[in-house]
Amino acid sequence: MPMDILNLGLFVGLGAIAGICSGLLGIGGGMVIVPGLFFLFGLVQMPEAALMHMAAGTATCIMICTAASSTWAHHKRGHIHWDIFQRVIGGIAGGVIVGNLIGNRLNGSLLELIFGLFLIVVATKIFFGKKAVLGEETPAELPTILVASFVGAVIGFKSGVLGIGGGALSVPFLLYCGLPMNHATGTSASFTLPIALVGTASFMLLAGNQQELIPWSTGYVYWPAVALVAPFTMLGAPVGAKWSDIVPADKLRTMFATFLLLISLKMLAGTGYLTFWV
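and the corresponding structure tokens:
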């Protein structure tokens, strides 16, 4: 799977864009990196049957760097509510493992379909439910341990199946708890680090040996892509975190929802189940 200069540049550009989106929107970068890697792996002629699983596993590994950089940047700005983090971490870890076990056994095209439909649902909810989850006009309310554990398990399960961070669920949940948008994105970024750590271990250890088909891989983690993308996600994340203090909260929510919708349509266009012109 040789890479020319153009492909190398595309991988680097993907990392920079994912990092900025992670810091700005609190999404962990996975919703950019998974579809991005899916298409780039196709360009470098990776086996088609492995595309979605390798994209998910590699994206999860890259998210370790993205989440660490984004979390630190938001922590320095006082955006992270560590009391909420402590209540969701147990559920997240368990959910990631269960989700990864199930996701490893799904057909690649079915996984693409689930990914695309999930993003459409989330984008639609944010577009039409923005007023219900604004959060700036009500005091922050700490969720109970039971509620936080359940939400954490759902976030972790979804992340384990799809190889993405928790922002699509955790940002709306944190807004509902009364956090302002920049605090919701910061706290959501902190959720992504344990998701990435547990998820990467699962994708490496539970996926079987892929190296015979795909050199330089461990399980569903393709190391050349990690080396190209991860450093630039770390450079982009602080830029996005800085912008989150500048861009108005309502515009952030609109950007977030629009971004999810475009990505979902692009993913669905490539499945064998549905056809969209995008």
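(Above: one complete record from the training split.) The chain has a mean pLDDT of 79.
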